[in-house]
Amino acid sequence: MAITPIRMTSSILDRYDSLPDGRVVIDVSAERPEELFERFDRSAPYLKKDLSVELVSYLMECVREIGEVTFAIRFRFSVHGQGDICKRTSQAIGEYFSYRIHAERLAIRKTVLSSLLLVLFGVVVLGVSIHMRFHLPPDPSLVRALLYEGVTIAAWIVLWEAFATFVFKWFSARNRIARYCRLRDAQVIVVSGKK
Predict the structure, then answer these.
(1) Which of 9, 23, 27, 167 would you label with 126, given CA atoms 20 to 30 Å apart?
(2) What SS3 class is residue 190?
(3) Range of the domain at 150
(4) How far, in Å, CA of 185 to CA of 180, rounded?
(5) Strand partners, 192
(6) DSSP letter at 1?
(7) Could you list the residue ranges that cross the membrane (predicted)?
(8) Predicted confidence (pLDDT) per residue in 115-129, tens digit
(9) Is residue 2 part of a domain?
(10) What is the DSSP letter of 51?
(11) Residue 162: is its pLDDT beyond 70?
């Protein structure tokens, strides 16, 4: 019996429209452009507003789902917008994801710094453990043996925490940055008015 590999990517991509040049289209429909943004900063210009959490989550999931395929984002608004709505929407999307990239890079720096501090602390504690080992008598008391073992275990726990913090946070942040870059650089197409 031959096993045929399943091409999930093509079946996933079939769910999306595509442009004549082959790019996948991520469609977003809303009544009006204001619905794309958080409502707590209504008086702020588009370029300063945060995109709605639901929209960002949807776009991030679409980018994850389509993989490395090139794409465009098409916004369909039911209400006719002002003449520069396409330009403003495109700029707002680009600005928002540029901001998210900057914020993630700052978070990576903090993660690296905290991991380095944990490594430094772990090495110091491990050094104390090694120093204690050389000063233990051949047949140490139970308290001294437990103290030595406890310090050694603490050192390895701190070093493991440094490693785990760096690896897990760094890789997930790098993935988010890659998706944010793709969203920032995507062409934005705006269609307004009832069909």
Answers:
(1) 167
(2) strand
(3) 11-192
(4) 9
(5) 77
(6) -
(7) 112-133, 153-172
(8) 999 999 999 999 998
(9) no
(10) B
(11) yes
Determine the Cα–Cα distance for residues 125 and 133; give it in Å rounded to an integer. Answer: 12
Predicted structure pTM score: 0.75
Tokens 């999930």 belong to which residue? 8
Nearest to 36 by CA among 46, 47, 51: 51
96 within a domain of the structure (yes/no): yes
Residue 20 sits at φ, ψ, to 5 deg, of -55, -30
Neighbour count for residue 162 (Cβ, 10 Å): 20
Residue 21 contacts residue 71 (beta carbons within 8 Å): no
In a domain, 73, yes or no: yes
Is residue 152 in a domain? yes
Residues in Cβ contact with 154 at an 8 Å cutoff, skipping those fewer than 6 apart: 125
| Reported confidence tier of residue 88, pLDDT bands at 50, 70, 90 | confident
Q: Which residues of 102-124 are buried (b: 16+ CB within 10 A; e: fewer)?
A: eebeeebeebeeebeebbebbee
C-alpha 90/C-alpha 73 separation (Å) is 9
